[in-house]
Write a structure and sequence with these properties.
Shape: globular
Helix content: 25-40%
Number of domains: 1
Structural class: alpha/beta
Number of helices: 3
CATH topology: Cytidine Deaminase, domain 2
Distance between the termini: 25 Å
CATH superfamily: Cytidine Deaminase, domain 2
Radius of gyration: 14 Å
CATH class: Alpha Beta
Largest sheet: 9 strands, mixed
Oligomer: single chain
């Protein structure tokens, strides 16, 4: 069971970044975490600025190559795993879109290789909750994220996204 531990103040900041009240486009952020037994402890976070995307809309986002390289390099320097977070608009329950799932095919194998097989997490957040995956044993073996520990509260995912058997 994989749990990401995040201080309450950090979780509130990340959530405000991902889901501002004027929310018109998807947003993205990254947490850097280090494994402590089966929990992953927060180290720091990175807010992707508007200039960090090659495209972004209410239904899709794509990071620039420079942003991806910066995120991976920082994780490498910290010896940390990456937790990718992005938002979906609206009031629907959280689940990854078809384009999110397709994006995992390219990015997950690359980032696992670059980080020497440290776990990689993906989380999609809406106003009503989140869903998440973690790749601990390679790109063909995603698992569901068990939860995000925020202070004394364990927040649990919707588990609405289809669990991929493998990335084709």
């Amino acid at each position: 069971m994989s749990v990401v531990n995040v201080p309450e103040r950090v979780y509130r900041r990340v959530r405000r970044h991902l889901l501002p009240w004027w929310h018109r486009k998807e947003e993205a952020a990254f947490l850097y975490v280090r494994c402590d037994e089966d929990a992953f402890e927060y180290l720091e976070w990175y807010r992707v600025p508007a200039t960090g995307f090659t495209s972004r809309s209410a239904y899709h986002l794509e990071l620039s190559d420079e942003t991806r390289a910066k995120i991976i390099k920082r994780a490498h320097d910290l010896g940390a795993s990456i937790v990718e977070l992005h938002s979906h608009l609206g009031r629907r329950q959280a689940q990854f879109s078809a384009s999110d799932l397709a994006g995992f095919r390219d990015f997950v194998p690359h980032v696992l290789w670059r980080l020497k097989h440290l776990p990689y997490f993906a989380v999609v957040m809406t106003r009503t909750g989140f869903d998440g995956f973690v790749w601990k044993c390679g790109p063909d073996a995603p698992e569901r994220l068990h939860g995000i520990q925020v202070g004394s509260r364990l927040l649990t995912p919707t588990k609405l996204s289809p669990l991929l058997d493998h990335i084709e």
